[in-house]
Amino acid sequence: MRRLHLVSWLAAALVVAACGSAGGGGTGSTNSYSGKTIKLGAILSITGAGGVYGPQSRDGMMLAVDQINKAGGVNGAQISLTVSDDASLQTQSAQVAQTMIQADQDLALLGPTLSNSAVAVHPLAESLKTPILAVSTTGINIVPDCKFPNTTPCSYVFRDSLGEETAIPDNIQSYAADAHPTTAVLLVAQDDKFSSDGGLIVQNTVGKYGINLLKTIKFNKAEADLSPYVTQAVQLHPDVIFITSLGGIPANIMTEARKQGWQGQFLGGNGFNTATVSKNAGANGLGARSASAWYLGNTFPSNADFVTAFKAAYNHDPDQFAAQGYAGIKIIADAAKRANLTFSDVAGDRDKLRAAMETVNIQTPLGPFQFTSTHDVKQTVWIIKMDGQGGFTLVHQIAAS
Amino acid sequence: MGQQILNAIFIGSIYALFAVGYTLVFGVLDILNLAHSAVFMLGAAVTYTLVVNHGQSFWLACVLAIVAAAFMGLVIEYICLRPLRRRRAPPIAALISTIGLALIIVAAIEQGRPGTLFAWLWVDGANPVTMPPGTFPNPTWHVAGLTLEGSKLAVVPVSIALMLVLGYVMRFTQVGRGLRAVAENPRAARLMGIDVDRLISLTLVISSALGGLAGILFGVALGGISPYIGRDSVEVRGLAVIVLGGMGSIPGAVLGGYLLGFIEVLAVVLLGSNVRAGVAFAALFLMLVLRPQGLFGAQLRERI
After folding, report:
1. Is the minimum CB–CB distance between A264 and chain B shorter than 8 Å?
2. pLDDT tens for residues A56-91?
3. What's the mean pLDDT in B296-304?
4. CB–CB of A324/A293 below 8 Å?
5. Inter-chain residue contact B233 with A261, CB threshold 8 Å
6. One fold for both A31-162+298-365 and A165-292+383-398?
7. Residue A28: its pLDDT value, please?
8. Is B224 in CB contact (< 8 Å) with chain A?
9. Closest CA to B79 of B104, B58, B57, B54
10. Which positions in chain A touch B125 (Cβ < 8 Å)?
11. Could you say which of 1.10.10, 1.10.3470, 3.10.450, 3.40.1720 is the CATH number of the domain covering B2-129+146-290?
């Protein structure tokens, strides 16, 4: 009887040990993690101009948190993620970040959704020595110069979203090689950092590929009617219209340009890369090309598994923003697993996490993932085009350089 | 240039229709109803929801959306205006109360997602949506280098006809005379046996129905229907229009709407795209300096 008891205890101990390592390989510090909570905060634009993107990021993050916690957590510690809406407003974004860092004592933050808000939030996180991972911001000077024009590199700011400085030139190069366009017009929202940065990159790039930029047409993102701008662009008969803008604007421009009889090529930036834009543009967006950090149809296991799980959880396809949000949680979880967190010294744990994030090397839906020495994403770029039915098809893939 | 003139006429019609509702309330009550932009948005949002999420025909959806917008007029009157009027609150209180209602309506719509409290009204959150192709007849003609689109062309006669009807009602009917009496002096009107509260409710209903219709026309012709189309597209411009035309003047609102449409478009063509809003509001500033009562206004009765 005593022997039976002993066998039962041994079996139970083995089960507990197995569960403890299910979170992803023990590091010898499993016991200190067990039963603890890793508090994370995400600042996302659920409403406002960035509301096209934020909910997808949130859903991707929540899926990752759910999967990790159900699999035993991070070395036994559960992840607790708080998502707060910044309403796409820079000031609200900074207020939320400050609360998460100082009042809630979160270990690390994710976000904010918009580059326009990142210029306020990232320097704040840097000054309060809290790791922050940008999951959708693609503007210039997000990493490492978060305090631009001060060029001291920010050491707590990371990014898993593909910067427009990489994406837009790759997209232009790819289309120039395929179709040899000679003229273009740029339509750019001037009152938004993401959009105006994109416009600047287009202006600085097109000349390298023999494209003559006939005109840059600036507008404000809250314009009632974009028709006058589109008419100006169309009347120049360009081969290409570049659109660098947020939210529903790219789809409205495409629709109006097609109505006015223009049949050329639309090229754009990260603002194209969500199903909402493709769906709203419909047949008018057919063939519109952009460079994306992610492609729905990729069949490598880390993406196929993500797509299947996302569809099961939310009953619709994920988009790039969901994939980047999901990858963001996986990246922080991997770093936390290796960081030997104490759970008693938040400041010390934040430093440990920051150091561990620099050496992340995991498989994500975005592909194999590492950070560059400047904390930017190093990944394959997917050139995609709208399929005219709310989705995208793959045109080219460009390996990480 | 021809295409740009068409663009100006189209957007001018939307501004005019929206601003007529604004100015009607101001003319009768001496207050600005800043919930009007939320009603504009509701017109477009309800039409979209009824067509896409509830499978209704486009025309029925339009009628129901106008009814819903008119009902919102009663909500504005009973919740935001009448209680304050009873307590003789100053016009600024009513202004703030309508801003509050507008924010609540927009917030309610942007929370609308599948499975939420407002899913019956809106399921796309902050996302902009567009009427699916084929929802309504929208023939497009290309004539002499111009693109003539049915949905935009229709906006012009619909707007003008409605504004003419409204002008006729105000000038030649018993209701119109009553409204003008209330606008002139509510107390005297009450002493003359006019049911002032009923006429004010009617004003809000007519104004909101026009605002809702403007939202429908805007959403149908331009797409991008979202919780923010009223706030972003017409709210401030509507104020500019009624200042240009003269606060409280219906012909002024009509003329001001087309004037603002032309100023904005000409600014893009002649001065460059990035100065559109600046030029429009510079014109507004000039009007305020040179002729504060606007084109058709008699005098400024309240400074808000």
Report:
1. no
2. 999 999 999 999 999 999 999 999 999 999 988 898
3. 52
4. yes
5. no
6. yes
7. 44
8. yes
9. B104
10. 46-47, 51, 55
11. 1.10.3470
Residues from chain B that touch A50, judged by Cβ atoms under 8 A, are 126
Burial of A399 (0-12, 13-18, 19+ CB in 10 A): exposed
Confidence bin at B127 (pLDDT 50/70/90): confident
Give the start-to-end residue ranges of the domains of chain A. 31-162+298-365, 165-292+383-398
Per DSSP bridges, beta strands A265-268 and A240-244 are parallel
Length in residues, chain A: 401
Residue A45: closest C-alpha in chain B: B126
pLDDT digits (tens, 9 = 90+) for B224-261: 888 988 988 888 888 889 888 888 888 888 899 999 99
Report the C-alpha dihedral over residues B247, B208, B106, B228, rounded to 10 degrees.
Answer: -70
Q: What angle do CA A190, A193, A198 make, to 5 degrees?
A: 75
CA geometry: angle at A378 spanning A372 and A380, to 5°?
165
pLDDT for position B298: 62
Residue in B123, B146, B147, B153 to test binding to A, most A beta-carbons within 10 Å: B147
pTM of the model: 0.78
Superfamily of domain A31-162+298-365: Response regulator (3.40.50.2300)
pLDDT computed for residue B288 by the predictor: 87
pLDDT score, position A330: 97
The sheet that has A183-189: what strands, in order across it? A212-219, A183-189, A240-244, A265-268, A289-292, A381-386, A392-398
| pLDDT digits 0-9 by tens, B45-97 | 999 999 999 999 999 999 999 999 999 999 999 999 999 988 888 888 989 99
Rg over alpha carbons for chain A, rounded to the nearest Å, is 23
- The CATH superfamily of A165-292+383-398 is Response regulator (3.40.50.2300)
Contact B228 A248 (CB under 8 A): no
- Write the DSSP symbol of residue A103: I
Cβ-based contacts under 8 A for chains A and B: 118
Measure the CA–CA gap between B279 and B235, rounded to whole angstroms.
17
Compute the half-sphere exposure of residue A146: CA atoms within 13 Å on the CB side of its CA: 30
Q: Helices A115-127 & A193-205, crossing angle to 10 degrees? A: 110
> Does the structure show a pLDDT above 50 at A19?
no
Which pLDDT tens digit goes with each residue over A312-322? 999 989 989 99
Tokens of B83: 């209680």
Q: Which of B110, B234, B264 sits opposite A51 (nearest CB)?
A: B110
